[in-house]
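Weekly sync notes, structure subgroup
Attendees: PM, AL, DS (notes)

Item 1: joint prediction request from the bench team. They want all four components modeled as one assembly rather than separately. Inputs as received:
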Amino acid sequence: MNFDFSDDQKLLRQAVRRYLEAHAPLSLCREALESGQGVSRALWEGAAELGWLGAAIPEAYGGGGFGRLALAVIAEELGRCLAPVPFSSSVCLATEALLLAGSGAQKERYLPGLAQGRCTGTFAFAETPGQSGLDSVRARVEDGRLTGRKRLVLDGGLADFAVVVALDSGRPVLVLADLSGPAVQRRPLASFDPSRPQAELRFLEAPVEGLGGGDSAAPLIERLLDGAAVLMAMEQLGGAARALEITRDFAVQRHAFGRPIGGFQAIKHRLADRWCDVELARSNAWYGAWALAQGSVDELREAACLARIAGCDAFTGMSEDMVEIHGGIGFTWEADCHLFYRRARLLSAALGNAAFWKRRLADRMARDAA
Amino acid sequence: MNFDFSDDQKLLRQAVRRYLEAHAPLSLCREALESGQGVSRALWEGAAELGWLGAAIPEAYGGGGFGRLALAVIAEELGRCLAPVPFSSSVCLATEALLLAGSGAQKERYLPGLAQGRCTGTFAFAETPGQSGLDSVRARVEDGRLTGRKRLVLDGGLADFAVVVALDSGRPVLVLADLSGPAVQRRPLASFDPSRPQAELRFLEAPVEGLGGGDSAAPLIERLLDGAAVLMAMEQLGGAARALEITRDFAVQRHAFGRPIGGFQAIKHRLADRWCDVELARSNAWYGAWALAQGSVDELREAACLARIAGCDAFTGMSEDMVEIHGGIGFTWEADCHLFYRRARLLSAALGNAAFWKRRLADRMARDAA
Amino acid sequence: MDFDDTRNQAAFRRSARSWLEAHAEPRAPGDPGPGNMPESVDAADVAAAKAWQQKKAGAGWACIGWPVEYGGRGATPIEEVIWAEEEARFRTPPDLMIDGHRTCAPTVMAHGSSEQKQRWLPAMLSGGEIWCQLYSEPSAGSDLAGLRTAAVRDGDTWVVNGQKVWTSHAQYSDWGLLLARHDPGVPKHAGLTCFVVDMHAPGVDVRPLRQITGGHGFNEVFLDNVRVPDDCRLGGVGEGWRVAITSLMNERSASLGDGGVDQVRDLLRFMKTVALENRPAIEDPALRERWADFHARARGVELTGKRTLTALSRGETPGPEMSLMKLVSGRLLQEVAHFAMDLTGASGGLAGDALTSSGVDWAAQYLGAAGLRIAGGTDEVLRNIIAERVLDLPREVRADKDIAFKDIPAG
Amino acid sequence: MDFDDTRNQAAFRRSARSWLEAHAEPRAPGDPGPGNMPESVDAADVAAAKAWQQKKAGAGWACIGWPVEYGGRGATPIEEVIWAEEEARFRTPPDLMIDGHRTCAPTVMAHGSSEQKQRWLPAMLSGGEIWCQLYSEPSAGSDLAGLRTAAVRDGDTWVVNGQKVWTSHAQYSDWGLLLARHDPGVPKHAGLTCFVVDMHAPGVDVRPLRQITGGHGFNEVFLDNVRVPDDCRLGGVGEGWRVAITSLMNERSASLGDGGVDQVRDLLRFMKTVALENRPAIEDPALRERWADFHARARGVELTGKRTLTALSRGETPGPEMSLMKLVSGRLLQEVAHFAMDLTGASGGLAGDALTSSGVDWAAQYLGAAGLRIAGGTDEVLRNIIAERVLDLPREVRADKDIAFKDIPAG
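Output from the run, pasted for the record:
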């Protein structure tokens, strides 16, 4: 029984945290949010240099080959500092898609650039508000050309390419689309968390290349989403834990009625409940990371749902309480609370919300138990 | 704007409460629960003498003709003292069914006896666990004879007759069945609240008579359930309010760490939340009572759902917190907490639970708004 | 039990409505109500608000609950509610004077000298002068009596230094009702005194405060050696807390909303347009149940309001129902907005128009709701009020009760 | 990161299992586990429990974590967990000695004289003598140190009077670990002393306590002029609180459950058999979501337990995770049982077999869960522990700290 990260992974965490404490204070997120840029170029380059982007990429393709547990550690730390970088889109989705399904040639072409941060990718799936399933996909590929509209693409405004879910002769496929050509129109969308920008992509017979999947890419897409869900749950865990720390510190420092407000049971007990949420999220996210790293698709099917559900609940609840416990100050733009409030909301929506993953979990467990 | 009971109704409430304080202490409920009798004959006779059972029955049929608001007041007061009497089954369901749909002859035959408590009726609907709708009814009437099994009948062990939902040539009908004949088998069921007994009824070609409804009794059954839901919500309100009072008093009297436990925010704030629940339940139940008394079927359709949802939530939450706040004492048989815990559970299940009424509310409002 | 006006109330309503029909346009669907403060107010808004107030004053429809001697008509509380209901049917400028009329004025009436009342009340009623309330401070929110803004006597004037926050209307106000500390050497409630500050005086600096919504509905007010003549003191020296309580009671009773019923209805409409698993969201059992739960709570709050109105119409003083309404609605509106955003699936991380085309900006509501749970009393303050004043549970153990303000631990 | 035994652990597990296979029958599905205390215990149960304990003691498998000198084998905490996991696979009598072994024994080891240890520990290990814990009182639950049972010195003995409650195992115990007040004139923690009471002594009266479930799993113990020799005092006079803390710490760490995963799995099976709107409940989106929420919480608790085991297997002391596990599971199990009853619609007001034929008595679970939220620390106590010990938030303001026990307000 060793349900914990290894010593190497703990050293990695320390290094990542030290770097981020120096280079990614919350003011970096605020700048990205206020500038409308939505991304810190400098941090992204730093992350690339330190090998974070290629942590799960084999050395043969220019990565570090440290595996998915390392990736999970990095995701949690980036979550802690609300890092304004396209990590989930480029690393957890696009890179993972290539690792899972790319041909040797595709890997050679894309992975080194992704590892070095020279190019970024993203993932395009949702088309209709509300719907998250494959049966809502209308985008279609004919003769190697993609036509359709992807409503919501994380970092879609700046990515170089996108892994797109589409239909080919009615069958779901994954294709890889260069976003720089004239047959792709990008429209930035107003993001609830402008430090994580989103865009709509329109493909007008854009040339694409296929990305694995054989007869039907459905299992591949499921697997890709499950893995990304685990990594995003680590990010949510980091955000929730940090929000709890900040709120706890505030509650100890802020006085009312001659006492630190953290001494009132109303606050004490609420923070205790939120701590429980965070620890449940931690246990579930770690389990997801273990299943992902194991490459155990069966266990990942359950673990991804668990991680995601607990992550959404913990971060949403903590971010709401963070504002409320900070009181009037928490409602000001100058305080950092809203950075967490916004990020929590964004991460809870991206990749399907908690309700979506709850249904998925019940489906899977009911089927498995049958 | 006069959203309150009238002075007459308030006087009635005072009288009812005074009588119940003298004749229905919580020990009466406990006796009914422990004896396995499940009903206090003496209290029932007292209620009959005071005219409570016939409050909504016109004077022509031996009632008091005070209307449904009076009935609502009585239901709330009976709820407060967890009265072990078949009020909801006989008065709020069987009597109401006769008032709504009985022929003149049927009213003459049954209502005076019901008003005087000489006979009691009940209502038999559910057949399959889980299902609550008309489409789960299998009991059928052929040539005036009823065959089928009614899984769960409140006070079914002692009632003289039952109003039964059945199918006649595939159409839902309401029929009136004498329960004393040999063609009816009764089996007592273990009730979660033995002070409110329940039984299974088997009809083996039992002779029955029709009870209004014309072509389809479906709207009639809906209306009957809506009305009964409002009155049961009043009962739930009474129970929840009383549980809150008892718990509040306990929290003021019980000391820990040199202070009344009601001085700790954990308890203060929980009781404040429960008070909010009770007041929301009160407002919604009153509104239901108003709609019922108005005879306004349209408004009752929404109001019954509101009353029932708020009633279930308030009483369930309050009864759970009542046990928990009482601590170890609350978990003993000798304390009264479990009487409330049991009654809350029973009332939340009878007539369909909160989820059932939530779906009903959404259905109705979505249709109305369409 | 009925929801109808009494004969007198109906007559009053007819008379109000007929005046309004003659002097205002009916409100179109989508027009903001009078309580809906715009995110920014310009000079034209101020002029329009003043003009409308003046028109009402001229016809005897301004501040109708005030005594006749100050320009009111001594109307009953229920008549005030009826007037507000009727006025809300018409297109009127945002009510920039609400804090003055509802909280400052009752305080002046209760604690002002007769000169002060004559000086300030008629001008406030007619819309000639706008008031704001200088109470909250960055370090004194829930614990208002812990405020630090200092008023030091200097002959016949007081010199005020400090910082106030969350001040609505300050940027166009003429007067501010100020609570300040004249003596940090006595226990905290005893060291407070109330003043009326000329907002145009030197040293008063109003700066807009940016909220997490991005809007600027509130201000910070910096007071730097502001001189306040002693005849602008309201109530005795050291009586500030008693004076302020009058405002606070009136502030709470001013926020009688509808509990969120409108938002929940908007949600129902929205659920018909969004699809989930290839059918309208409203047909999904999970979402139906959630909606019904919202609706039952919102209607419960709304109907609790009707019970309050009933009490008002009998001349009774409404009790702590206000705390219930705000406590329940605040959380409800946050849940509703979050739920609505979630309905859009992966799009639930978008803002504004990008999120939906339903005409409701759920993202803005989700941000705003975070503030509803704070402004006018946090959830915790409201629960304490209910627990202590309704349920009569023991008061808080007070660590700062009998010691000089300056000795109270302050972190 | 892995969930496997280390090589040493695997070897230990094999050795444990092979002894168990030789001496016990495998547990059949439906057999109660060793922690499942029957609602009533008879003489045969006591004899069986003693016999099984004796058998284990003979082979060195009893109380394996104890030092060798008292009959243990000085096993590590993780080995104790492995042993418990393995033993749970076999059909064994209910463990009536759990309070003695897990909480009384460590207390005797930490605070007893060497005579006391030799007198009591081997007999406890071999199953010869059963122990119970006489701590809680009707007026001292969460506030244990507020207990009133009095111990008055009379030469070389103490005379004990008072009432204890919620005492498991008392009816067949030989010894009771008693916390009593020897001096009401000093602050409450200072006036306590710990004793070991002969449960067969005159004046000890054990009466079964009826719970709301109808069962009698606990007792009240009345102490009427019970004479306890001074050599049965554990620790110094006035050191009772320090002694008791040892028990309490061990009591909390004893309740490492699986967080409700089994019940949630039962629920899934149940949802396949019950129909709603003419399809199995598990196909209804609302019910699926609720189930998944339960499952995620239960698995979260279970996996948090694995983190604790990891700490144990490294020789670290588990922290306040125990509080999390009980806090989350207690509420979860109550919700799950309520939900399961609700699944049956109008039948959800039935009890026992009448409710379902699923083999799970949800009604009994709903009653029992109310107690889970109380026993071993109420929700409030657990939240305080987490807030103060994990989050290092300020301790409670204590009204009863520096005053004599007899002067503390007690309602």
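Discussion: The interface with chain B takes residues 264-266, 269 of chain A (CB under 8 Å).
Action: AL to compare against the crosslinking data before next sync.
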